[in-house]
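Translate sequence into structure tokens.
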Amino acid sequence: MKISFIGTGTMATAMINSITESSIFSREDIMGSFHREKKAQEVKEALKINTTTSNIEAVKFGDVIVLSVKPQIFENVANEIKDYIRDNQLVISIMAGIDVETLQKNLLHKKVVRCMPNTPAQIRQGMTVWTTTKEVDESEKELVRQILRSMGSEMYVEDETYVDMATALSGTGPAYVFLFLESLVNAGVHLGFSRKDSMELVYKTTLGSVLFAMQSGKHTAELRDMVTSPGGTTAEALYELEKGGFRTVLEKAVYSAYKRTLYLKEINRKKGG
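Result follows.
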């Protein structure tokens, strides 16, 4: 079993490292394609995989093809490789905003998997939501599960709509968390902590809170009440957050990301004819 990556950026590199460290694929059974020879050589030396500047060569190499190019150039890449994809090959897309119908139509291929991974996959703590076409059989689904679990956790959904939703929630979610962390760290600095100490306090408090929430099995409202004493400091802080529309703004942000996902998907669908 061999696997090829059409486009080998940050997320593809994370996937390559994960599947090799998990012994799902050996490095000699992996090929990545690049436009520039210099970049191909750099990655070959760094990751110890096969590289090429030809997308067609990469397609011919792999039993599994991972599409990890920018959505904006997908149409051009599809036109380049569509006549070389074999019926028995499995195509996995990790591109945002390209739906299954567009993938099938542009690639002239039926066996398609659409995934939405997220940034923590780079440290094997990612969350990936995925779906497949009906032509993907159970053994192929199991292979996809192994690949995605090597990067963290995975969630299979039959309805592709949930992949769009996940794009706005878990796919974009790390950015919301990073902004939250940044704000808390800055608040700590404003109080008088050094940035280093503030970062340690915020990061470890956030991590501990998440782990506690996951292990407790309690509703987050109940957990929040456990920390909030009547008339205390937490109650005062939460009052200001609610007054500022904290949860409403966050919910609106997620929904805006979801609407943008649908818009981009429609644009890509029309572009693909």
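Note: The first strand starts at residue 3 and ends at 6.
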